[in-house]
Design brief:
Strand content: 15-25%
Structural class: mainly beta
Radius of gyration: 11 Å
Shape: globular
Number of helices: 1
Distance between the termini: 36 Å
Largest sheet: 2 strands, antiparallel
Strand order of the largest sheet: 1-2
Length: 54
Amino acid sequence: MTTVTQMKCACDACLCVVNLSESIQKDGKYFCSDPCANGHPDGSGCGHTGCECQ
């Protein structure tokens, strides 16, 4: 049996892969940052290098 420890951020536009132990969980999904978890309410991205989600 394999334990999943990483998953792509649940934000569709986001390219980030998050460690589940460090992710932000909301509604049963895993996100890399507060902006992603909250649906980018102010239009800001996650701020991670190379990712342009918003």
